[in-house]
Amino acid sequence: MVAYRSKVVERIELPARERRERALEEAGYNVFELPSEDVYIDLLTDSGTGAMSDAQWAALMRGDESYAGSRSFDELESAVAEVMGFSRVVPTHQGRGAENVLYGALLSDGDVVPNNTHFDTTRAHVANQGADPVDCPVAGARDPTADGEFKGNFSLERAREVVDDVGAERVPLVIQTITNNSAAGQPVSVENTRQVREFADRIDATFVIDACRFAENAAFVRRREDEFADYAIDEIAREQLRHADAVVMSGKKDGLANAGGFVATDDADLFERCKQRAILYEGFPTYGGMSGRDVAAMAVGLREAVEEGYVTDRLEEIQAFADLLEDAGVPVYTPPGGHAVYLDAGAALPHLDAADFPGQALVCELYREGGVRGVELGSFAFPDTDRPELVRLAVPRRTYHGEHFEHVADTAAAVLEKRESVSGLEVVSEPANPELRHFTAALAPLSD
Ligand code: F0G
């Protein structure tokens, strides 16, 4: 069993209700606009918000800030090789930097890209290359109550339909996202990864794994896929990732770092193309938009992420949080995923239509009631797609404890007790790019 004790503490405070009301209004009912000091429990994202270990802080001090040939890069290269099994690494400032570098090297106008589910920055980067992102979730992925051990899987059936529709020559790239963040953080089986590899071979496409949460995924695989019951987490990770031609990685998730990302591959030609793009958009290929110390901390974090005790504790923490919410009568997506608990806002606020953004209404009420910040991943974040009205409560790694999760469950229960009085919202201003609207759009309550 593994636990953590605190070496450094950070004070957090629940602001008075009046201040929360005012902050919400001033934020245009968009919690991305809230100052963090007005937030008590921040579950907006698990990305770059976790606590680093003492070993990572020590690595920060030893970071090599040389522009070229940094020792910290060597440390990253060996960590990626040993943990993930790839010999060539292009560091980037974070995951979307890696997406820009890799997808820019692989895609052109008119291409079509199947993915089990595109995360929002992935969707935007694919679209930014003039390509069409197509989601291929399995049946049940969008059903918050459906049973299933691998609801994050890639639907080969759907992908074959896409290829039949547009022709294989327009599908040069297939992506699999593990875990499947936009499908409630659900895991993907190694068997499914093997099938996607075969599918990509058949249509002569490059196969990329978005590996942001590869360690959490491996922990699910060990519990749920019989073949791997006796494997170590890193062995499972390598067995899954080796099927991909390349991975895109955000070090802010299972790199346990506050910044960073990379592309990794064994393909010398693809590596070269990514490297050249990285010089243009990120930085010299031995730092890639990060400081040397961040590279060093991420190298240590990657190794910690596949430690048995760490990742077991991580899944148990999420499961316990989901149980607390369920016990408080809050409808949650089941089974819970690896990095977050997703609330079913459609079931929580049944009097609101999708057009009234029940998910965003619930996000606002959680903040108003208890200073809790989550994020909507329903019809506000994904206009014109057929998704359930989910609210994600993402859990920063090694950061919050039982009493915090209890506060969130009590808050959600208090909101549900007065659910009839919760009004819907309308968008009053939005940016030009619809893929990214939830970050900056402003809303107003419908009853005003
Ligand atoms: N791919 C997936 C599956 C992600 O979840 C994210 C980020 C990215 C790529 C981009 O990585 O943030 O380092 O640029 N997800 C965060 C989230 C932001 O809140 O889920 P990034």
UniProtKB/TrEMBL annotation:
Entry cofactors: pyridoxal 5'-phosphate
* Pfam families, A to Z: Beta_elim_lyase
Q: What is its EC number?
A: 4.1.99.1
Where the record annotates domain Aromatic amino acid beta-eliminating lyase/threonine aldolase, the positions are: 42-410
InterPro entries, A to Z: ArAA_b-elim_lyase/Thr_aldolase, Beta-eliminating_lyase, PyrdxlP-dep_Trfase, PyrdxlP-dep_Trfase_major, PyrdxlP-dep_Trfase_small
Q: Which superkingdom?
A: Archaea
Broad EC category: lyase
User: Which GO molecular function entries does the Swiss-Prot or TrEMBL record give?
Assistant: tryptophanase activity
Q: Which UniProt keywords apply?
A: Lyase, Pyridoxal phosphate
**What family is it from?**
Belongs to the beta-eliminating lyase family.
PANTHER family, alphabetically? Answer: BETA-ELIMINATING LYASE-LIKE PROTEIN-RELATED, TRYPTOPHANASE
Can you say what this protein is called?
Tryptophanase/L-cysteine desulfhydrase, PLP-dependent
Task: State the organism named in the record.
Answer: Natronolimnohabitans innermongolicus JCM 12255
Q: Which gene encodes it?
A: tnaA
